[in-house]
Amino acid sequence: MMRGFYGSFAVLQALYDFWTAAAGGSPLEWVSVLTGFACVWLAARESLWNFPVAIISCGLYVLVYYQTGLYSDMFLQGCFIALSLYGWYGWLYGGRGRTELPVTRTRRAEWVGGALFAAAYTLGVGYHLQHHTDAALPHWDAFTTAGSLVAQYLLMRKRLENWWLWIVVDIIYVPILWYKHLYPTSALYVLYLGLAVYGYWEWRRAMRQEQAALPEAV
Questions:
Q1: Where is the chain membrane-spanning (predicted)?
Q2: In DSSP terms, which residues pair with 104 in a beta bridge?
Q3: Measured in whole angstroms, how far is the alpha carbon of residue 48 from the centre of its chain?
Q4: By C-alpha distance, which of 170, 172, 162 is closest to 194?
């Protein structure tokens, strides 16, 4: 009985330590976390509001990552802002006859192009960060940035498999951000992981409904 009591106490102590560490995040990081969670939730729900919220969140994270030496991720946020503007327009008018863009599967050419881009970016930018900056974890930083860019492009095109890539990227980001003492953001990426799974199921359901409605529309 006492062993069970001490085991429960250890779990509670670990949770308390985590919360104490997380609460030490800066106000800027916490606002970035909240807006970041909101934009991913809205994207999983196929809401156009994810784009303006994403632009705000990414702008805040430019400052957060600059302060912690994650320069590749800082650059990534700038790319996300540009892609969000592109995606906002594309979701509204990217379908046939300038209609709303439907959810579709990723094309083979997009997989090949994305893989080549990710490999080249990871090797090239990782080398530059390692030898010319004080960046933390340069190659991991470059790899997660490349994977995020490919995933974001697929999301802008409403490709279902963008969520697969986000799941992989989120799993890698959690320990990296924890290592850099960005505890609230590390916890956010755990939530992102759950939202990516949710987004995949929601988008797959929407895609099947759209495909089932096609014969009726003809």
A1: 47-66, 73-91, 111-129, 163-179, 185-201
A2: 159
A3: 17
A4: 170
